[in-house]
Amino acid sequence: MKELMRIEGLKMYFGGLKAIDGFDLSIYEKETLGIIGPNGAGKTTLFNAICGVYTPTAGKVIFEGKEVQGTPAHEMAKKGIARTFQISKPLAGLTIFDNVVAAAGVHEYTGIASYFHKAKTKEVEDKVEQVIRRVGLESVANKKASDVSLGFLRRLEIARALVTEPKLIMLDEPCAGLSNFAINEITALVMQLKSEGQSIVLIEHNLPITMKVCDRITVLSYGKKIAEGTPEEVKNDKQVIEAYLGEEDD
Ligand SMILES: Nc1ncnc2c1ncn2[C@@H]1O[C@H](COP(=O)(O)OP(=O)(O)O)[C@@H](O)[C@H]1O
Ligand SMILES: [Mg+2]
Asked: Which of 10, 11, 13, 14 gets mutated to test ligand 1 (max ligand atoms within 8 A of its CB)?
């Protein structure tokens, strides 16, 4: 398997708080890698430090053989790394369709600027329509983002990432806070992307979901990796069981 991304000795400190404290990871093409860990373990911070939301305190992020750590988020997107946010940040006044259009211009412009400058050429519209169908947003495509449920907003997050045609998509807890029905739908969508050959990193707090969709799982606790392996290996790991035991439901 070909290595797509390698993370070496990554550290992300906030003053005295060592949110990520020396983290190594390889991500391979076409795999679905799960990152799990208790609340506050550092999962979202890891994404932010990888994707250019934060500049890491130390360490390397190597993507397709080149060091990219510290590159701003929109430049990372151009390189082919797209991430979704745990808390969706749609352009609330725009329709679902136009929100995806706005994301489509990432290779030329960033954010809202792309929407106004590149606007809706036939080519962009076709691409957006395809992505809308792929993630199952057809029924709400013309609704304003402010008027749809959380489950649809999570799909929108995924659509906005997919429309940039990422080599690697990084999903931050796409199922958090959803009903069981919506969780099953999002899980099915991740499985579909996986079957299409998309390389995926999935942060997920829910163990059964991760076990179901991931080829390999890395477990984070207090900013450090405590286990890594197949779902079966991780499930039976003593340190993993301890990290999850006694944790309050959220
Ligand atoms: N911008 C920030 N400034 C200071 N502390 C932060 C910041 N972001 C996250 N943290 C802290 O880093 C730790 C890890 O948080 P986070 O990455 O959100 O965990 P997870 O996503 O695993 O629940 C927490 O203690 C959190 O309070
Ligand atoms: Mg988080």
From this structure: 14
Tell me, yes or no, whether 206 and 95 share the same domain.
no
The domain containing residue 220 runs over which residues?
1-70+167-250
- Span from the CA of 167 to the centroid of ligand 1 (angstroms): 27
Decide which of 133, 165, 197 is a domain's last residue.
Answer: 165
143 and 105 in a common domain: yes
Domains in the chain: how many in total?
Answer: 2
Nearest ligand to the C-alpha of residue 39?
A: 1
Q: Rounded to two decimals, what is the model's pTM?
A: 0.92
Which atom in ligand 1 lies closest to the alpha carbon of residue 41? 22
- How far does residue 119's CA lie from ligand 1's centre (Å)? 36
pLDDT digits (tens, 9 = 90+) for 187-215: 999 999 999 999 999 999 888 899 999 99
Q: Pocket around ligand 1: residues whose beta carbon is below 6 Å from it?
A: 14, 17, 19, 37, 39-45
Helical residues (DSSP H) of the chain, grouped into ranges = 43-51, 73-79, 96-104, 111-117, 122-135, 150-162, 180-195, 207-213, 231-235, 238-244
For ligand 1, atom 10, the nearest C-alpha belongs to 19
pLDDT in tens, 23-63: 999 999 999 999 999 889 999 999 999 999 999 999 999 99
- Mutate which of 21, 39, 45 for ligand 1? The one with the most ligand atoms within 8 Å of its CB, which is 45
